[in-house]
């Protein structure tokens, strides 16, 4: 029952965010003003990383599981465990990406991806 309630909560949040976006509450002028205000206090790379992580994790299975876990267990422990887990995962991704970028050119990776996709497309033609 608690998992069902958690899924229902996430669906409502997605619906609310989608309604706010389509209603014009997140228009371009407001976004520019908000961006200028935020860049006074935070660096642009911090804002990009935060946005990518926040919206990438919003409403996924781990968030639903965390809501269910917090319903049964100590919420403070769930928050601290979630923060540490995300921090370790992000740290591994950043260090791995930095190491990989120093060894492989981005152009080579992009070219290899396009070649791979071309060969996959040729299989189905």
Report on the architecture of this protein.
It is found in: Membrane. This is GDT1 family protein. With 125 residues, the chain is mostly helical. It is built from six helices and no strands. The protein is extended, with a radius of gyration of 20 Å.
Our count of domains comes out at 2
Low-confidence stretches: 18-26
Biggest beta sheet summary:
none
What Rg, in angstroms, do the CA atoms define?
Answer: 20 Å
Task: Figure out the total of helices.
Answer: 6
Mean pLDDT: 76
Into which percent range does the helicity of residues fall?
A: over 70%
Distance between the termini: 48 Å
**H-E order:** HHHHHH
Count of distinct strands = 0
Structural class: mainly alpha
The backbone outline, from C-alpha atoms, is extended
Strand content: under 5%
Protein name: GDT1 family protein
Keywords: Membrane, Transmembrane, Transmembrane helix
Main location: membrane
GO molecular function, one term: calcium ion transmembrane transporter activity
Q: In terms of topology, how is this protein built?
A:
Layout: H1 2-22, H2 28-41, H3 44-57, H4 61-72, H5 75-103, H6 106-123
Helix pairs in contact: 1-4, 4-5
Describe the structure concisely for a colleague.
86% of the residues lie in helices and 0% in strands.
Defining key terms:
125 residues, mainly alpha, 2 domains, 6 helices, 86% helix, 0% strand, extended
């Amino acid at each position: 029952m608690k998992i069902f309630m958690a899924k229902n909560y996430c669906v409502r949040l997605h619906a609310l965010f989608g309604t706010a976006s389509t209603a014009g509450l997140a228009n371009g002028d407001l976004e520019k003003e908000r961006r200028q205000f935020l860049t006074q206090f935070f660096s642009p790379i911090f804002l990009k990383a935060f946005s990518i992580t926040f919206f990438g994790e919003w409403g996924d299975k781990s968030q639903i599981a965390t809501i269910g876990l917090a319903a049964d267990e100590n919420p403070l422990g769930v928050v601290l465990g979630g923060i540490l887990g995300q921090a370790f995962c992000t740290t591994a991704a950043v260090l791995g990406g930095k190491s990989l970028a120093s060894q492989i050119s981005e152009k080579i990776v992009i070219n290899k991806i396009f070649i791979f996709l071309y060969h996959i497309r040729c299989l189905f033609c």
